[in-house]
Model the fold of this input.
Amino acid sequence: MSNKTIAMSEIKDLKLAEQGETRIEWAERDMPVLRLIRERFAKEQPFKGTKVSVCAHVTTETANLALTLKAGGADALLIASNPLSTQDDVAAALVANHGMSVFAIKGEDIPTYHRHVQIALDHKPNFIIDDGSDLVATLVLERPDQVKDIIGSTEETTTGITRLESMQRDGALVFPAIAVNNAQTKHLFDNRYGTGQSTLDGIIRATNRLIAGRNVVVLGYGWCGKGTAMRARGLGANVIITEVNPIRAVEAVMDGFRVMPIDEAAAIGDIFITVTGNRHVIDGKHFETMRDGAIVANSGHFDLELNLQALEKNCKSHRPVRHYMEEFTLKSGNNIYVLAEGRLVNLSCAEGHPASVMDMSFANQALSLEYLIKNKGKLTPGLHVLPEAVDTEIATLKLASMGVKIDKLTKEMVEYMGSWKVGT
Done:
């Protein structure tokens, strides 16, 4: 264990630090873009004298983002964005070996989570990195006096951006916020390939069930839903999509999936995966019509996607049967199996997204903070997207790290694309 000063923190066990450090190093090997940004930040110190409060999943990949911010001179404090997503050994390593303040314990209860949100705001941040917008919403609602100190915030998730859009409509978003999730190098890869792989990984680890031959119902066909459906089909599942958006529903049909309402799918599904970002998409009536032995998992940000209160009300008993799996025996006698208490199955039952996709996502986070500080006082309050040039820079660095080369436009091509006079 390092001799560095132990920061004020609340974690499970400092003795886990050595294991956590090894895992952080392993993730860093597959995050070359973030590594290059960290090396530049260490020289330029763009965040010297600033404070950052990070509300995120405390994983090996997030640790590398935090270390990148620290290398750039930031005083960073981390809290968990989900009660079940913390990797306790990683939290220990950040505290013991890197002197960072971390308030995150896997399995923490909701009052503890809310207390940690308050601690993150007690840090008096100049920047907020959010995952679900709990920090920003709490700041605006409960601590308006601190808003003047905020240079800007970033948001990682679709769910969080939906909340920020609502705040913006209400005139409550009074500082610049970068919609990191809307960057192409984030949602096209993190949401699709990261969520797709890690969600199935979590379900398989939790259940040890064969996916091939099962009817897997994916609720929502956004980028996360597309990735989840693609990976389930790759494992041999018969995939059914439910949607409320006609365009996405048509896309799912054209991609070769069956599309139907959840009212119909509930009766034939074996495994259900919610990725909508909305409330009670699997409701009480759906649990009642599910087959005996149906498995239900959520990979959306909040557990509200599943109406677990309705499920509990309609069951005669429930009990844990495996790690992070609970059996609900309905009054009809059918058993329903809920994974990870309805919380993010990919982070609760597995390790979250692979480092290689988080490399791009967290490169976006790091460069978003740099963009905010470079444009301090110039950006209007409200949601912003990183300039396309930054997105392109991240993709270019990623290709270089993979040893992939691409073509470049010739002078003639550029002239043709900029002209309206040349045609057939």
